[in-house]
Design goal:
Length: about 180
């Protein structure tokens, strides 16, 4: 079976695969000029290639990137590093990227993220309130219905206006529901 992919596309795919990206993800990147250009512009030795590929392929940015956005690559890289290090959630990442896209500077966004993180430190109070309002569900969870964790996370996320980090909420809930 003969491939209809040109030699240069094969070389691009091979180079991406060599860097640790799956062949299927490499093909997706190469088959979309904007995604490939975005990946190339954002590639950084501090960002794991397969993680960056997923960010670009699955559009964690929350909007369609255009050539103009590539001029802001350095600011997007900083946000991707925060996401890769689990210092911000995907939702906060997308919101921050939209702000960069609109012309807001990274430093202002970082300041906003810091204040959001500070306000989320009070998430324990929200969790306590959710658990006390849902005592029957707490009993069911403790009796073995572990799928209720998603329900509790959803309730906390709703109560926090989507500002809380879902992973962190899940960890705190799991710990509190043990007792």
């Amino acid at each position: 079976m003969k491939s209809n992919i040109s030699e240069s596309e094969d070389e691009k795919i091979s180079k991406l695969v060599t860097s640790g990206i799956t062949e299927s993800d490499s093909r997706i990147l190469v088959n979309s000029m904007i995604k490939y250009d975005t990946y190339q512009k954002l590639a950084d030795r501090d960002i794991e290639p397969s993680f960056l590929a997923k960010v670009v392929i699955h559009n964690y940015f929350g909007f369609e990137l255009a050539k103009d956005d590539l001029a802001k690559a350095e600011e997007y890289q900083k946000l991707i590093k925060l996401l890769a290090d689990d210092k911000i959630s995907k939702n906060n990442f997308a919101e921050a990227c939209k702000k960069i896209h609109q012309g807001v500077s990274y430093n202002i966004i970082l300041s906003d993220l810091e204040s959001t993180k500070e306000s989320c430190k009070g998430i324990g109070k929200i969790i306590d309130q959710i658990l006390s309002l849902n005592a029957k569900e707490v009993e069911r969870y403790r009796a073995g219905e572990k799928q209720l964790l998603g329900f509790f996370i959803g309730q906390v996320m709703q109560a926090s206006g989507g500002k809380a980090d879902a992973k962190e909420v899940g960890k705190i809930l799991s710990d509190r529901l043990k007792h």
